[in-house]
Amino acid sequence: MKQKMSPSWIRASSRPLLASAVVASAVLLAACGGSKDKAASQTAARVNKDEVTVHQINFVLQQQRGLRPEQTEAASRQILERLIDQQLALQKADDLKLDRDPRVVQQLEAMRREILARAYVERLGEAASKPTPDEIKKYYDEKPALFRDRRIYNIQELLIEAKPEQLPELRERLAASKNINEFVEFLKSREMRFAANQAVRTPEQLPPAALDSFARMKDGQATMSQAPNGVQVVLLAGSRSQPVTEEQARATIEQILLNERKRKLAEDELKSLRAAAKIEYVGKFAERPASGAAAAPLPATTPAAADPAASAGLSSTDISKGLGLK
Asked: Domains in the chain, please, with CATH?
């Protein structure tokens, strides 16, 4: 019998390494102008015939999220050392003419396409208007489980291997059991295979579709539903209140709504571009997909997750920090 299983809701060789270093170096050098624009750069280090500039360091620093001001100096020195290693790798790659390697060329072109497409989407997003105080308040009021009635959930989960016809009996036994241990003993007596897991979850870590259901549950309550290979039982072992005021949530909500608007602008623009373009599918791609085979969206240049917080590019940790919580 398996002991643990994650909850159902929870999504070398030297040459590849050298190629990766070349790609990263090329992007940084292209973004910052390399050593050609010496008049506009400040030298941080000389690496043989080339320079590593302060502009390159600052470019990398800008990508570091959550970096505190007092950490900047140490981080800059660490970044400089990495850029020196990168420059040395780039120089050797130049000697070996790796920029002509078909795989490297393909990687560079793919990165160029991604950067330019993302830059265009970001330019579109600049037209998005900031949410008004009324819109922020409306969002806050419409999501009490995230803010006003926010709780931290202690969850126990059982994933049971069972046939569909066994679901009614399992549901009946779960309702009749005084506690989860009694139900587990029943499973053992029937020699049913199951896996157990326990976790503490914040509202941001729960699927948006399930959050309202959890918010309505009382401590000690359990739910049962069908799972891909059987049955899933979720018990709310306990919870504690951790409400968030509108003032605490304002900055986070504003960012969520703003990013949602940016995503919508990008979506509408791409639909418009598709409608105006002449797109012809060739070869096997010209064939119609099998019935019911919907096209799975590829990772886009803008997040398009169902969770508004995810679409804003915010993790549960970001949200908790933004709300002033630990």
From this structure: 14-125 (no CATH), 151-241 (3.10.50)
Q: With 50 as the cut, is the pLDDT of residue 262 above it?
A: yes
Query: Quick count: other Cβ atoms within 10 Å of Cβ 3?
Result: 7
Distance CA 307, CA 8 (A): 17
- Predicted local confidence at residue 303, as pLDDT: 36
Q: Please give the pLDDT value at position 57.
A: 93
AA letter at 237: A
Say whether 325 sits in a helix, a strand or coil: coil
CA 248 to chain centre: 23
Give the pLDDT of residue 290: 56
Q: Please enumerate in sequence order all residues whose Cβ is within 8 A of that of 166, keeping only pairs 6 or more positions apart, or say none.
A: 231
191 torsion bin: left (phi>0), alpha (psi -120 to 50), beta (else): left
Q: Is 249 exposed, middle or buried (0-12, 13-18, 19+ CB in 10 A)?
A: buried
SS3 281: coil
How far, in Å, CA of 173 to CA of 183, rounded? Answer: 7
The 10s digit of each residue's pLDDT in 28-42 is 444 444 444 444 458
Beta pairing class for 151-161 and 230-241: antiparallel
Confidence of residue 228 (pLDDT cuts 50, 70, 90): confident
